[in-house]
Design goal:
Largest interface: A-B, 134 and 134 residues
Radius of gyration of chain A: 20 Å
Strand order of the largest sheet of chain A: 3-4-7
Largest sheet of chain A: 3 strands, antiparallel
Helix content of chain A: 25-40%
Oligomer: homodimer
Order of helices and strands of chain A: EEHEEEEEHEHEHHE
Structural class of chain A: alpha+beta
Chain lengths: 189, 189
């Protein structure tokens, strides 16, 4: 629940936000974070991730009281039974959520009060590569399209600036547009 | 629920799988899929995606009876109230889920019966860039580490081959390692 005070804007405590920024300027080493997810196969395309603690600001963050459990699946046409959204759809969710939170945080810092932020994301994929039928198409999305509708107490040009700045601040947008090195280790016993 | 028959392996109907592959070989245009997510800001770092229909195999797939609703959030140290896993954690979940399902499908096609697939993913990030304190570190993960433990009725070398092939077949692994073009459109009314 958000307490309404002078420092709250868009549900963000801007006093705490600026204090956090000042702290990170003074002690840059506190910016090192490590997020984690553990996943376990259940059956077929059904698997579940658990997410809880993470490393942040010089130590293990154990403030979350409960773990998040997130089930994935596939629809029937991709040989599953809809036990959850599929992994590619979760990637779209991650991107939508990160851009949206970035928009809200940037707007809050710039004293823009938002009334709504809505988005629709589409990802185009040729599933023949993922299914091993043809190696010509790429395996992942060929492109992702994001349509935002943002309203608030600022002129359209300023709202567009907020979205542009949010793209530069969004961790998942950086990951998805630029790629990240992934190391995979395997044990079999 | 999986019905145990000769064609079921690891919860995957291999007869249906091979029929799908044959169909896609005969009619490559059926491989074009479009996945979607719609997201709406709720408050602060709390937003929610809804995921349901998608375009597949020449038409709109409306077989899902219910939509998936997925809430995102941030922990207190990142100015949220833990309304859900955060977007970067959801990206790790998407990657874990996609690699795991790819392992299960590849194993099923190769007649390997799996007993367990477990993984732990870590993503290292300097949050100063996302918070706008410093533009030197990249905004997203610097690297992602994936540790799989895979067991089944095949020798270790064959299980490792399954994981290697699954990396090539995983849509999210391709997206995260290679990046994807993202087009962002904005309306403000």
């Amino acid at each position: 629940m958000s307490v309404v005070t002078d420092t709250m804007r868009n549900g963000v405590d801007t006093e705490k936000m600026f204090a956090t920024l000042d702290l990170l300027k003074a002690q840059p080493e506190l910016g090192k974070f490590r997020f984690r997810a553990s996943n376990r196969w259940i059956d077929g395309s059904h698997n579940r991730s658990t997410i809880k603690n993470f490393y942040a600001a010089g130590g293990e963050d154990t403030t979350r009281t409960d773990e998040f459990r997130i089930d994935a699946g596939e629809p029937a046409i991709l040989l599953g039974t809809d036990t959850g959204a599929n992994p590619a759809e979760f990637l779209l969710h991650a991107l939508a959520a990160c851009l949206t939170t970035s928009i809200v945080y940037v707007a809050s810092a710039r004293k823009v009060r938002l009334t709504s932020v809505e988005s629709t994301l589409v990802g185009d994929m040729d599933v023949r590569a993922a299914l091993g039928v043809d190696h010509e198409p790429r395996t992942g999305f060929e492109r992702i399209g994001v349509s935002f509708r943002v309203t608030g107490d600022a002129p359209p040009a300023k709202l567009r600036e907020v979205v542009e700045r949010a793209q530069k601040r969004s961790a998942v947008y950086d990951i998805v547009t630029n790629g990240v090195p992934v190391d995979v280790e395997v044990t079999t016993d």
